[in-house]
Records
---
Amino acid sequence: MLGFDVSSEQYSSSQSFQEVGMVKMDNVTFGVTMLIVGMGGTLLTLGIMSLIMAALKRVFPYRKEEEEKS
Amino acid sequence: MVDAMLNGFLGLGAGFANLHWSNPIMIAVGCVLLYLGIKKDFEPLLLVPIGFGCIIVNIPLAGLMEKHGFLRTIYDAGVMTELFPLFIFVGIGAMTDFGPVLENPYTFLLGAAGQFGIFLTLLLALALGFTQLEAVSVGIIGACDGPTAIYVTSKYAPHLLGAVSVAAYSYMSLVPVFQPPIMRALTTKKEREIVMKTHQKTVSRTTKLMFPLVITVIGGLIAPMGLPLIATLMLGNLMKESGAVARLTRAAENEIANIVTLLLAISIGATMDGRAFLRKETLIILCLGFVAICLDTVCGVLFGKVLKVLTGGKVNPLIGAAGISAFPMSARVVQKEGHNYNKKSYLLMHAMGANAGGQVGSVLAAAVMLAVLKGMGVI
């Protein structure tokens, strides 16, 4: 009896969850989609964040006197 | 009477009699992790409890990972529920100063480029025969962030948790070893000598307070599946920047982070039972983890070169290597490399910006990945 069962109910249920009711996709489609959409999504999200933060810096500029007060 | 005594003595030797061939090997592996943590100072806060957990779980008949075993209880309570990595993220957020990245918001993009390794490694893992969710869990090692890797792997491939965690934490501590050769190979001497101007402090307190809120709301709307990761990191940062909850911030940075780190690490060690760990997949995962972090560095430096061209030579491409989540180790590596080639070059603050961007980038990359998986109907 393994101390940690690799075919535990948790894994079995997640494996069957993957197979049942969810879209089955070939690995090439999956991998390329993850690469393009995943990486593109990450770049886009962080690009949006950088624009928002740049805009916030303009809206709330650094003022030495106010920072020293706070 | 004699039979009873004999059976009693046999009971004393039951541990030895039930040893599997993999158990002594894993006990040795645990000792190696202890050596790396204690003697070599490689992420000791993690490798010491992981190593010890690995040793004790490979002693047969102790029942530590059986139902109601003490390690099983901790594992189910904190790892399977994903609570432990999320609590650690609160502490990380409370310890991180995002000021350098806010001073130069373009460094967010370096943080994004530093996550390419996740997706490229995912492709490699698929090519090597891993299932789709296993490949996601292997690729996430490239986030170079332990809690993120544990969060994703415990959800989608818990049987790989031991290998993924050991890979993620071990390679993070090896960043100063394998990043410099990659940085030198991809840059010219002239590029490494570029001096970047240092800036005065230009970020208002209001901006620093708005930052965690913006990241949480916008990031959460784009990738709701990753909101637990984003929100806990940003909660810690908001507590720190507000200054209004100093007790909570101190607790998050110290007591909570330390207790959860101990429990998490020993739970990870507990997954390293020899019969589950010593498989060829484990070796492949350890290799792919290394490849993932190398690819992160390669893509980060290449993106740094693109920024150098776009800015007319003002950006030193070395800072691209700091766009990973190994904070602040990677920033120090970049500073050291730049300083080696030009004593007038002080890249630390710029590299810290890229490094902090990498921290946010790794969390957002995981969140985006989960959102895309959900959108594709895989989860």
---
Amino acid sequence: MIAIILGATQFPGYGTQLDNLAFGRSSAAFLGYLQDVLRLRAEQILNLFDDAASVIDLDERISTFLTRNKDSRNVIIFYVGHGGFLSDREYYLAVRSTRRGREHLTGMRIKAIAETLNQSAGDKNLMLILDCCFAGEAVKEFQSNDLATVVETKTFDALPEAGTALLVAASKDEPAISPAEKPYTMFSESFLKVLTEGVRSKQQRLSLRDVAIRTQALIKSQYGLLAVRPEVHAPRQKGINVADLEIFPNRQALAKRSVPKPPPTTIPQDATRGLVLVRNEFTVPPHIFTREFVAVVSDILFDQQEALAVLDQANHQLSAMDPSAVLIRRGNLVLGSTSYEFWQSLFDEAGLQGHRTIATLLCALIDREMPSDVIQQCKDMLQKVIDDYHSQSNRRVK
Amino acid sequence: MCPSDAGVHGGELHRLRIRFDGLTVMEANKAAKELERVLHPLLGSDGSVGLAKTDNVTQDFGTTLIVVLGTPAAIALAKGIHDFVAKRGSRVVIETDEGKVLATGDAAANIDIAKAVEAIRKADR
């Protein structure tokens, strides 16, 4: 594997208007990841971040670097900075030498990058990570044109498997954000966290898609309505979908392998007070779970794999408390629907099982990485469930 | 040239802002860059036009144009914006640096060139 880093902290051609220290920190953190986790050697990394060279020189060095490393199968390209449009609406990225009013000559056109990569690395797996505004606009430049598609199809067997995937900080219509008070950009902060901390309930290596999904969830949980949702695309696939290549070490899975297995659930004590006294004797009235509560949970845990992991944890805990407990069956859930419908069906199903099932589900939610206000809402909901159980028990005794 | 760095080579120079209402950030970025290209040759040797950022947290180049122009170029500026609005249908607002609106134009009612020129000429008085 080889990697190229692009972008800049300062853009002298614009005065100080575009300068942003978060770009430098994000780039440095990604470089650290390449060196410390992926163990790339100096000759495997081309760091052009904050390089003052012209776009032609940068392009030449990229081309030379790719040619020199022709045996490497996988290429990662990371850019952090500003993205924008030329007057003919062509998309480009700013580098240190980009100058105001001369962007058509000094900006790094995505179309030109795509051409260079096609010439010098067309037989490799390319992964582009673009942390800038409207980065989704870059995707179309990496799609095969009609003629290339015909040629590739006709000679498919003779070509090595290769493709291109992009992880972009923002869609083609959205601005990426670098919050003023934060050390990193919104995207890089969560992206780097996923790379360095890994993903629970995933295999030992993560694909770009795994990283993207977890990054989306982290950004959503941290920024809520202000979140800018990253996207993953695989516009070029010659026998392989690069977005699904498992190449990033999953720290959490590797840690699990090397240390004794912890208990499967770690339900917090303060949330479980009284849980053992709650049984599945009655159904839970549906009005307890307000639409607002379901919406909050589904907004945070919109990835279905994450949601199913919560369910698995709850079922495991139910079995631990009572081996004969009836578990929530996945087959009863509205799979493949919107996140809201899925969570509504999950709460409905758990509510039909009874108070213990739904309380255990809430405990599994409380155990997730979520904003503190959402965890508090889950705790409040848990208390309502416990109170309702006692209320129904008392009515039956009377 | 950066508009804020524009020098005064004699005569009266006006500094104006041009912004776009009702567009997404992406569309406003594109529109500003297109209009910059339209206006650049119209402003004379003392004039300048360039993008400016109004939101420092976004990773883009800005959605507002800063224009510096001499009084004689006001007609060309107004005509250029008029033609741009007629072609694109975008809602364009011309205002002073302090935010006082001088003229607006959109698909339903394009800017009145004569009134816009008059407003620009009076803007700094």
